[in-house]
Amino acid sequence: MIFADARLARRLEAAEAANARGCSAGPGAAVLEAAGGCAIFVGASSPLTQAVGLGLNGPVTDEEIGAIEAFFRSRDAKVSVDLCPLADPGLLQALSERGYRATQFNNVLVKRLAGTEIGLTPRVRRAVAGEDDLWSHTVGCGFFELRDLTTEEMDVGRAIFAMPGALCYLASSENGEPAGAAALAVRDGLATLFADSTIARFRGGGLHRELISARLYEGLAQGCDLATASTLPGSGSQRNYERLGFEVVYTKVTLVG
Length: 257
Hints:
By secondary structure, this protein is α+β, with helices and mostly antiparallel strands. Helices cover 33% and strands 28% of the residues. It contains seven helices and eleven strands. The protein has helices at residues 6-22, 62-73, 89-97, 132-144, 151-161, 207-221, 236-243; strands at residues 30-34, 37-41, 50-52, 80-83, 101-112, 124-126, 167-172, 178-187, 190-198, 226-231, 247-256. Strands 1-2-3-4-11-5-10-9-8-7-6 form an eleven-stranded mixed β-sheet, sandwiched between helices. Strand 7 (167-172) and strand 8 form a beta hairpin. It is globular. The chain starts with 5 loop residues before the first helix and ends with a strand. The model has no long low-confidence stretch (mean pLDDT 95).
């Protein structure tokens, strides 16, 4: 069992913030360092546009919250805060007083990599340079559950593919058709697994478990001692992670103001 304390939370959320910063290299993107974390703008409607890692190093002032709000609102984006339950409790109180509401929960899962055995993932491979649109379309089709994607929806995947240090993976169906995608980032011995997506008609065939395993093996190869991922509570993704030895360490809430 892994004990979820403030030290672990700071490690996990620091990696999350670093990954968010890495997605901000595109045209019009921006980053604001604030409250021990950061606010990221990638586009007014992008799911990557949010504030992460706030309040884990101490209290957050009203001035810091105001600066984050101004950062988003000046770009015509809603203010979205990905709040860790181990953040300074005053932050939740301050956001509540400002009228923020909860819109989503996400479970953060962790697995120790010691003792993990290497296996085969024959339907999964690393995406290579020049496959940014293929990867973005595959991950977008699974995430948005659409066959045709807008430029804005494609740009979500493109921002992740271009992220420094990101390793992107593709999963194929039995006939070689792109069927799923995912990404990995390694920072300070922590393997963060994210952007998991399987196209609807290919779900239930074990592709997601292969995508998880392939990234775990890469984390091992790079000397990681810990792996982490986030899922919707009670989802099929969570069950797949738990089957491979992950456990929930805390639940984050998305607050929108």
